[in-house]
């Protein structure tokens, strides 16, 4: 009986060092293997979405070139007899069709980019360092900002707690194509916390929204010109500068277009999004084509 008890005790003591460690090791191995498979699947999805995004960008470039041609013809057209008036009406109709097509392509582009951001977040979430908590001694800034009345809109009381939530809500509306609803929210966030990184991103998206459903290029341009000088080292510095140059180019404001596009080429060369790095040169090529006479 004593021998049996001793043997049992001996086995119990061996277990942590002997039998349990290999089982634990095998469990870790299978968990890592499962995670690797999930990561490979995510990367595969990411590659597919990236290819679709490249196709969308080609369509956007084509639409952009067509709109430039229409603008060029409009600039040269002087209304006189009935035939010219008829041509002007045809151009107006064509421009409307292009805007409608552009809106649909942009909406699809936004959907794909949202999926891309979600997948990229899934891939990187495991490697992100923990966020340092804000000091409890830091006073919470409260705001009194006019926000559209909607029970679904998050409360915007304090920068630390609410800015990110508010931004993500407004960006969600933008991604769904509800541009006119997102604009006042982005502006309210920026009014409350003008130096907050989410607020600056929101102001950029408000400019993009102005060019989506109703093409308000001058309003969008005014927002971007206000924003660009304040975006040093911000992840929207490249695209905001590029968009400002592109809108100037579409408006045939060649001097300003060249300035912003050259700045964008310098900024976008180090942008984290690879496909952004080549876009300024494409726009500069268009500048050469359409502004040579100036």
Overview of this protein structure:
- The chain is mainly alpha-helical and 294 residues long.
- It has a domain at 19-127.
- The chain has helices at 2-17, 20-76, 82-124, 159-175, 179-192, 197-210, 217-227, 237-250, 254-268, 279-291.
- Helix 4 (159-175) runs antiparallel to helix 5 and helix 5 (179-192) packs antiparallel against helix 6.
- The longest helix has 57 residues, at 20-76.
Spell out the key features of this protein.
globular, 73% helix, disordered N terminus, mainly alpha, 10 helices, single chain, 294 residues
Strand and helix order: HHHHHHHHHH
Cα distance spanning the termini: 105 Å
What average pLDDT do the residues reach? 74
Looking at how many chains there are and whether they match, the oligomeric state comes to: single chain
Tally the beta strands. Answer: 0
From the helix content, strand content and strand pairing, which structural class follows?
Answer: mainly alpha
Shape descriptor reads globular
Which ranges are low-confidence, i.e. pLDDT below 50, for 5 or more consecutive residues? 1-22, 125-149
Sheet with most strands: none
Number of helices: 10
Q: Per DSSP, what share of the residues sits in E-state strands of 2 or more residues? A: under 5%
Rg is 27 Å
Percent of residues in helical segments? over 70%
